[in-house]
Amino acid sequence: MTKKQEPRFVLNLKLKTQPFQEDILNKRFEIGRHLYNSVLGLALKRYKEMYKTKRWRENQQNISEIYKKNSDKDKAKKLCKPYFNIKNEMLKEFRLNEYSLHQDVAPMQRIFKKNIDAFTSQKIATRVWKAIDDNIFGKGEEVHFKKISIGLNSLEGKSNKQGIVYKIENNILVWNGLEIPV
Asked: Quick one: which of 125, 121, 134 has its CA closest to 98?
């Protein structure tokens, strides 16, 4: 049973940071960039291994041929169902799904647990999965690593209950012992 989608909103607030807090935040963003690149490297390695298999390439070829021959998308989707099942089996076999990436990021996060909490690292893995997913299913462009010069411009948690928390009653952002007034 799928979870009911609730409306989500983004609120940008100016943080009143001290220089030492900015240094800590910069360190955490850099750790987040490293985690992103590490998980992306694992995912791309698995994808390349899967792509090398004859089974994967033949399956993808069969899917594209069906879509080329049928202009009716619904009919093509029905005809491709067994090939989609093969595709999903192979993704599981090569551990290319969001939850596998969550498992992969967990031991990496433990090294940096004073700076990056588990929920934030899982969201980083989710970002990687979305990039890989778009690439696999033909909706996106080539996936790129985050460069040190650009880095990450944001990090997020899974909820406002743990990890990165905004306390509206105090107007404070709290994240792993760091308290920043807003």
From this structure: 125
